[in-house]
Amino acid sequence: MSDFTSNFWSVYVAGITLAGILGCLALLWFSGKTKAMTHTDNTTGHVWDGDLREMNNPLPRWWVGLFIITCVFSLIYLYLYPGLGSYQGSLKWTQTGQFEREVERGNEQVAPIYAGFAGKSIEALSKDPQAMAIGDRLFMNNCAQCHGSDARGSKGFPNLTDDNWTWGGTPEQIHETITKGRMAIMTPMGAAVGSSDDIRNLANYVMSLSNGPHDSVRANLGKSKFTVCAACHGADGKGNQALGAPNLTRGIFIYGPAVESHVADMIANGRTGVMPAWESKFTPEQLNVLTAYVWGRGGGVAPAPAAAAPAAPAAAASADRASVAVEGGVVSFFFATGKSDVAADADKALAEVVAGVKAGKKVQVSGFVDSTGDAAQNAELAKQRAFAVRDQLKALGIAEDKIDLKEPKNIDAGAGAQARRVEVSLV
Ligand code: HEC
Ligand code: HEC
């Protein structure tokens, strides 16, 4: 138990402690021998102001009694508990032992709560207020220092509330990320790309993928170099979740501003981002609650089989996240509260619209908002959402002059997720 290699210090410390206590007792015994006497024959000889004499009386009995009790108490204490050098005390009490007993007791108390979560899907858990309250606490204590208390991340740490997932946003993928941890390795690619001019050109090409600020002449020159990046980021730059290579077409960069110099720096120096593994720290139930908490923060992607079936508008709009639905030739884009991110599967839903434009029709795009919040802000949001959808259409090859942005007469379409939409129709 002792931190020292020899016993000497333990004996030394114990000796001083015991000698101190015994010394106190001896002093008490010694000073108790003098008897209280009358005030004349027991003065020290010190006199002040002609009348004030200093007496040499013994300590009061009650005070001595208390003092002896403290000494006896400390001897008993030192026999029962650790305190004398490396002697562990007859009760073998330790701080870690007490801590572990308290943790065990705490776990026993929450066990019934977690038992109620057993067998629930991640989606069901994400709608359970009790599970989400626990998830919030777990997140604040373990994840917020990196991902931020609002889970929106910061430089070097991804935002967990958007639908831009490096490692995938289905419940299974998020669970895997949290449980096993992730390591994203981008090796320095400078040598493979060429001169610093080549790197700049390529960086401009990468910026052009998300339509960020770039020099289009350089971007064209750099395009052919992207083949060395395609192995990980994909030929279209949309990333590879199995490798943790991020999507470069969305203008979301966790390591720096969306500018050419940041991309050039990434190409030259690479990076290794590490998300720690949490398997050993949490119980399986806690890992499920954390997964549900992250998944339910707005960016979660539906589990694979459910995504294949075209969702009905009401169902698609029920969760607070971006989604798309097609009904009667009108494509409705739903949005998460306060956001203008277009759902990931938008392209599929727009296939009919694209075909219609090819056949000579025009597209009309109108944005609606729900009635909560500031009206001016809502109007701006409706516009941003309409723009986001327009960009999506342009990305699918529809010319801008075929897209008609039309402000609806009444952009406030009532309450709820159904109202937060952009409608796309052929005219
Ligand atoms: C020490 C800092 C740190 C802590 C603590 C941390 N993370 Fe992370 N996390 C990261 C980093 C860095 C990444 C990005 C890894 C990469 O480069 O792809 C990440 C990625 C993730 C991702 C994947 C995001 C995506 O786009 O696919 C999820 C989900 C996640 N973290 C959840 C959590 C949860 C839940 C906790 C708490 C249990 C947590 N993290 C705690 C640093 C941290
Ligand atoms: C070996 C696979 C691999 C190759 C090849 C690769 N990357 Fe990456 N790249 C990654 C990974 C993994 C990350 C994420 C690193 C992290 O999170 O720490 C990344 C991150 C990036 C980022 C940063 C994104 C951000 O959020 O800030 C940029 C930009 C980038 N890569 C561009 C490129 C370009 C351009 C090339 C071609 C020269 C390239 N990458 C080649 C795997 C690769």
UniProtKB/TrEMBL annotation:
Gene3D superfamilies per UniProt: 6.10.280.130, Cytochrome c-like domain, OmpA-like domain
GO BP field: oxidative phosphorylation; proton transmembrane transport
Cellular localization per UniProt: Cell inner membrane
PANTHER family referenced in this protein's UniProt entry, alphabetically: CBB3-TYPE CYTOCHROME C OXIDASE SUBUNIT FIXP (PTHR33751)
Protein known as: Cytochrome c oxidase subunit III
Domain Cytochrome c, chain residue ranges per copy: 130-210, 217-298
Record-annotated membrane-spanning stretches: 12-30, 62-81
All residue ranges annotated as the OmpA-like domain in the record: 322-427
Cofactors demanded by this protein: heme c
GO MF: electron transfer activity; heme binding; iron ion binding; oxidoreductase activity
Keywords: Cell inner membrane, Cell membrane, Electron transport, Heme, Hydrogen ion transport, Ion transport, Iron, Membrane, Metal-binding, Oxidoreductase, Repeat, Respiratory chain, Transmembrane, Transmembrane helix, Transport
GO CC entries: plasma membrane
The keyword NAD is assigned to this record: no
Pathway: Energy metabolism; oxidative phosphorylation
Coiled-coil ranges (or none): none
Alphabetical list of Pfam families matching this protein: Cytochrome_CBB3, FixP_N, OmpA
Family statement: Belongs to the CcoP / FixP family.
NCBIfam families: ccoP (TIGR00782)
Superkingdom of the source species: Bacteria
